[in-house]
Design brief:
Helix content is 24%, strand content 29%. With 201 residues, the chain is of the alpha+beta class.
Length: 201
């Protein structure tokens, strides 16, 4: 066979191959490089439970605003009983205005004794072994803690004070201040805000 004829046949086969590839590409069946697709992680629903909304400083909260939320806390979701009575309140890391980084409520109901704790992370319900005072607290009748601090600013908001804590029962609001190497305690009537002299405590 002549060389020119062979070249012609090869050229014709090449043209036929190009036509077939073009046809397959137009038909969508031509092989294409596989693409690696990374699946996006699926966001799982999260049960956030009771979400508090505090409009003030996110680091510290007033007793009045947290007490309003404590009254709404759905305790029945935790231990099956909606009723709750407050017998003790404590504020930790208190600022000169009487706002605390953490508020702790000592509560009782038909099923047990608990601490209901509130801080910047939200609420936590903790079983308590403590024995609370006998008389329960009506938070609606408590003297405003911020007012106690404002009315006793000289002794409770001194720049030399390193830290403050507060403990509240039905009759007394006791404020502990750390100053220097010692700790001082001031007791106030929890209903009137009046300072209770040390010899009357």
């Amino acid at each position: 066979m002549r060389r020119s004829a062979i070249i012609g046949i090869l050229a014709a086969l090449f043209i036929v191959w190009l036509v077939v590839v073009a046809y397959l590409a137009m038909a969508g069946t031509a092989p294409v490089p596989a693409k690696t697709v990374t699946a996006k992680p699926v966001r799982q629903p999260v049960d956030l439970g009771f979400i508090p909304r505090i409009p003030s400083d996110p680091a510290r909260f007033s007793l009045s605003e947290v007490s309003e939320l404590a009254a709404l806390y759905p305790l029945e979701q935790q231990n099956g009983s909606v009723e709750k009575d407050i017998y003790y309140i404590a504020g930790k890391n208190v600022d000169p205005e009487g706002n605390a980084a953490t508020w702790i409520y000592g509560i009782k109901n038909a099923t047990g004794v608990f601490f209901l704790v509130y801080d910047a992370q939200g609420w936590e319900l903790v079983p308590a072994a403590d024995r609370f005072p006998a008389q329960k607290i009506d938070t609606g009748t408590l003297y405003n803690v911020s007012s106690i601090f404002a009315e006793n600013h000289d002794v409770l908001a001194s720049p030399s004070i390193a830290g403050r804590e507060i403990e509240i029962t039905a009759n007394t609001a006791r404020i502990l201040v750390r100053e220097g190497a010692g700790t001082k305690s001031y007791a106030f009537d929890s209903l009137t805000g009046a300072l209770i002299p040390a010899h009357e405590e």
